[in-house]
Design brief:
The chain is of the alpha+beta class. 22% of the residues lie in helices and 32% in strands.
């Protein structure tokens, strides 16, 4: 299970432009470790290790250096080259590289040296494949293009120091860094669609998608809902027109009533998580009170009546019940579930009078008439899923008896 968090502050203006020559974007928050935070990136030139200075200069690669809470990633412009990940736990030292006086690599004194025992290669050739872990001591050099080394190195060393701490201290240190940088970032009013828009609510929250929790600014106006992620991933700003919203539902996230999910457009949805229930309820109340938001009637009696009359399908009604149970496709901890009711998987369709039976390479037709009123067509709903297979049930019973006996023996010898 992978759950990454993204956050970036003070990234260069040039990062708004495409940093790939062919417009292909490979970096994703899914490449990070669980709970890892993406802060910012820098334009760099990478010089491969293990080569002479002249050879390294000829084989240099342009790309972006991604600074994260537990690692540094190099994303080259050439998609045939792999993304390189330097985990702080494998890094031995970070510092300024000092080469020869007339070195071709160091023209402005802005070359970063990373000494590490392992480099992880990902998405080589822009193909999703197992990661390659290159375990060998090497020194990798990165020449910063637009910014000075001092400021960048100070941030990296701060995060590198945090990686050497225990879990609790490391989390506290990274949290303090995140909060300090959050306070310096405000919503860019230039994203407003109209001069007549009025900001109704502005808050800090997270956008939740499968395996990713991405923080940013949430801004509600009288015409749009904006989400501006701090890390500009996967877009600089997300705009949702209030008139396109069809349904707004309060959500439970990680056992706390702090989420709100918005359904809009054609099968689009947005799951936002705020810091407290009070902030979530305030955003919800302001959303539903906006005149531009014309929401559908999704009361339980209304939806049940539509299902009974065939207006909506079984799938749509089951999805509605999942939604009412705080289940969402955006949250893998509360993913939608569907009931397993049918046990006849041999018939072409329920109600057929024949089924196909395969014996070796020969296919026979066997008469069988599954009736919708026949209880054999459906699984035994009086038993849980784990008790349907008799062989598995017997193993569970035996295992349970053995566990009880072990517990009794342990209690006999306990003082």
């Amino acid at each position: 299970y992978r759950h990454s968090t993204g956050m970036a502050f003070g990234s260069q203006t040039s990062s708004l432009l495409l940093d790939k020559q062919d417009g292909t974007k490979r970096f994703s928050l899914l490449l990070l470790e669980p709970g890892e935070i993406y802060f910012e990136d820098f334009s760099v030139i990478f010089y491969p290790s293990g080569l002479s200075e002249t050879a390294a200069f000829k084989r240099k690669q342009r790309g972006r250096l991604k600074l994260c809470s537990k690692s540094v990633l190099f994303d080259p412009e050439n998609v045939s080259q792999p993304i390189l990940k330097f985990s702080f736990r494998d890094v031995k030292s970070l510092g300024q590289w000092t080469g020869a006086l007339l070195s071709k690599l160091d023209t402005k004194g802005s070359v970063l040296s990373i000494r590490t025992n392992q480099v992880t290669e990902m998405k080589e050739g822009n193909m999703i494949s197992p990661y390659k872990f290159q375990k060998m001591h090497r020194e990798c050099l990165f020449s910063l293009t637009y910014v000075g080394l001092d400021d960048v190195l100070a941030r990296m060393q701060q995060l590198y120091k945090a990686s050497t701490l225990g879990f609790v201290d490391q989390r506290a240190m990274i949290t303090s860094i995140v909060r300090a940088r959050q306070a310096m970032v405000s919503f860019n009013a230039g994203w407003l669609e109209s001069l007549y828009e009025k900001i109704v609510v502005e808050a800090t929250g997270d956008r939740v998608t499968p395996l990713v929790q991405n923080p940013g600014r949430i801004v509600l106006t009288n015409a749009f809902l904006y989400f501006q992620p701090f890390n500009k991933e996967p877009e600089v700003v997300l705009k949702v027109k209030l008139s396109s919203m069809e349904q707004i539902v309060k959500r439970r996230y990680l056992l706390r009533q702090v989420g709100i999910e918005i359904f809009y457009g054609e099968s689009s949805n947005l799951l936002l998580v705020l810091a407290t229930t009070l902030e979530r309820d305030h955003l919800y109340d302001e959303l539903v009170s906006q005149p531009e938001a014309r929401l559908q009637d999704t009361g339980q009696e209304h939806m049940t009546l539509k299902w009974q009359n065939g207006v909506i399908s079984n799938y749509d009604y089951l999805m509605y019940l999942n939604s009412m149970a705080d289940r969402s496709f955006n949250d893998l901890t509360q993913y939608p579930v569907f009931p397993w009711t049918v046990c006849d998987f041999e018939s072409r369709e329920l109600g057929d009078d024949s089924v196909l039976v395969h014996v070796g390479c020969v296919c026979y037709v066997r008469c069988f008439s599954p009736d919708l009123q026949d209880p054999r067509t459906f699984r035994d709903l009086t038993k849980p899923i784990g008790a349907l297979n008799l062989e598995r049930l017997e193993r569970l019973k035996v295992g349970g008896i053995v566990s009880v006996l072990r517990c009794v023996v342990a209690c006999m010898w306990r003082s």
